[in-house]
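Field: sequence (string)
Field: structure_tokens (string)

Example rows 1 and 2, in order.
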Amino acid sequence: DNPRCFMLIDTELCLDFGMVWTKHKQPTTMLVLVGIGLCLISVATGAPSRDQVNANPLPANETIELFITKVAGALRDMKPTDYPSSTRNVNGQWMWQYSDGWTSGFFAGLLWQLANVTGDASWREQAMNFTKGRASEANNTGTHDVGFMVFGSFGVGCKLSPDGCPSGYQDIIIQAAHSLAQRYNPIVGMTRSWGSISDDTQFEVIIDNLMNLELLFWAANVSGNATLYNMALNHVQNTANYWIRPDGSTFHLVVFDPENGAVLNKSSTPQGYSTNSVWARGQAWGVYGFTMAYRYTGQKEFLDYAQTNLNYYLNNVDMTMVPMFDFDAPVGSHLDTSCPAIIASALFELAEYTQMPSYRKVAGTILESLIAQYQAGEHSQAILAFNGHDCSDDKCTIVEADYYFLEALRRYNGAPIL
């Protein structure tokens, strides 16, 4: 058969292709980026090409129903001040974290997604109950993750509540944005990720912070505050300037001098494998974060950055679409399903902005792989598994993996990008 190509940018054809070997040294597909085209074909292993895979209907509705069943069951063991973070290795139940934990907003956001997809008032009530406890974090100036904590709950509620943004939510979001703004340094042109605002020796920023900028963008839009908008805009551009390597991969942590903005160090990957390795979830944050930034700014270069990060992922993942927790980790290391779940969701948005249907096909292939091979099973309150680097066992998962997986399934079904 003739090779089939997914054109990722404009209409340039693939010029060449070759064999890609997986981390397990098994030839699975021909996948090479040449210039700005992506071409892939199946080989003797019998693995279907990604466009062929998407010819089969994806069981998205069935998987969403599974979310409804599992989350409803989990709620029976929870109270609204429980903030699920990861599943226990033995019995698959969610473990809680405190209100100021960085993932504490995701479960409320997941409930808002279910309220939106079902239109059921009982899910809206549950979402509001689990969101309410996040209000105290609106005054938290000690972390950049106020974006995940507050916008991931109140913000998602404003976007997805079947009855519109609930009363009081907008004010809480705007307050949280001003709290995050206190971590902004105009000399560096970014918001500080780690450390005290008063630290004048180093200014640490991680790739994850790109995602928290939606808090600033959204608050700027509804309040008309240009200062918040420009803070977020500068941070996005500086992420592109300092984080993207020539091969399209990303650094995890960059450390600046807060007094003059000079880069002190960018050779650190705290959540990855080694000093200059490529942390898989960080790569996904880049794809999603730059795409989200385009949503609020309309600046085309942000799409280019997202595609650059995406191309690295596509060139370095095997046909399962699920990488190890770090692209440079040795064979046999823990896998990370959060990375492809985040990227799949971003791809549906990227497809809309670039008018490239091939992105939807790749996203569908990712979702099919996650559904077919990487679910946690009946024993677990979560849907996905295989986040062992974060929670010590391949049977466990982290809440953000399920959050973005559900978002991707909803987008597959045509949910609008909000």
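Row 2 begins here:
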Amino acid sequence: LRFPSSALRIGSPMPYRRKRHGKKAGEGSEEQGGEERKGKQLPEGVVLVAGQLGRRDAKYDFIQDVTAVQRPLNNNSGGWHFWRSIGAPQHVCAPMVEQSELAFRILCRRYGTTLCYTPMFHSRLFLEDSDYRDGQFGPLDGCPEDRPLFAQFCANDPPVFAAAANIVEKTARVDAIDLNLGCPQGIAKRGNYGSFLMDDIPLVFKLVNAVHTTCSVPITVKIRVFPGDEERTLAYAKAIQDAGAQVLTVHGRGRDNKGPGAELADWDMIKKVREHLSIPVISNGNIVTFGDVEACLEATGAAAVMSAEWLRRNPALFWGGKKVCAFQMAQEYLELLSQYPCPLSFVKSHLFKLLATVDGGFNDHGELRERMGKTQSLPEVVEIVEELQRKRNGQPSYPTGTREDLLPQKPPPAPPRERKKEEEEGEEGGGVDIFSLEF
């Protein structure tokens, strides 16, 4: 591979992670980090009305250039009009923290993806911290090659969510604002967002309606279901539609159905939600191959199918069943970095996922896997991928996967020391992530 020098500079700033200061994830407040971050400043038009900037007691309001968008609460006739206006996309790249970044989105769009989501943004940090804001949504995000694009936020404070959404809306580089009500991880529980808001429908209604009535772009929502409880799931989905959501993504698993032991997503429940609502519904779950995409559309009647994990393993998942060599896609991704740079950690994560299980990939060459894990240099990353290709002697390697890969798997128990570390750091490990912050 040959790259201009600009390709070897990973210039995009790392998303802000709060440093640990002797307390467990989610404990304490912003005072833990010592002196206040220099990047903390409110964007134009947003005012602090109570509390202190950057603290949990902070309350905000924002001054709009025009009066609030006057819409009836149950304005759902526009959902399908909006959906058709962006091309009625059927193949969707899911929002993934630190993984659905611009370079990866562009790669997926080359191979059949017709709608992408940004990584999830933390609404309060996005509002308060200009460094975080600039690092998460840069000047190239939402460029013409990156549309249609939905910007996803986690939130539990309606005014903060509306103000953060208003900032993105004003860039005119997104087609919708999405609310994450599906994250099931422990960090979401500690931060009180994602699927841990599904028991508080009045708050969910206020969050959705706050953006619906103040932003000119549509509000969309991503949820999980109440397993085995059709009535409750349908009531939840209907409340979100009534609050103003124009598109709903339904992950057909419950909040506790996650990880290696996860059961299959419930397509029948997704179908019932779709039949119950009058807005487009996107189905999420059980997608490994393009055959699964077609089967899902047929079984659920959904407007589109979303993929996350298996799209990372095969960015050509939506390419009509055509096989594309994993090394070719790795080369294309690395080349895209010259135009759409991102942190090296993102690059390594994508390459591990794409090249781990294919023939001649990292699982077959432990020494190269170890070297990739240690390197902090993009040129060396390129060299490692080239070496893997040389070892294949020009033979292509294709991403593989079957429905059996979705069946529950029990991981081996971690050694006692590792289990203790995981308990201290939370399910994601690696210290305190920004998304464990309480709102």
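free_text_note (row 2): The radius of gyration is 21 Å.
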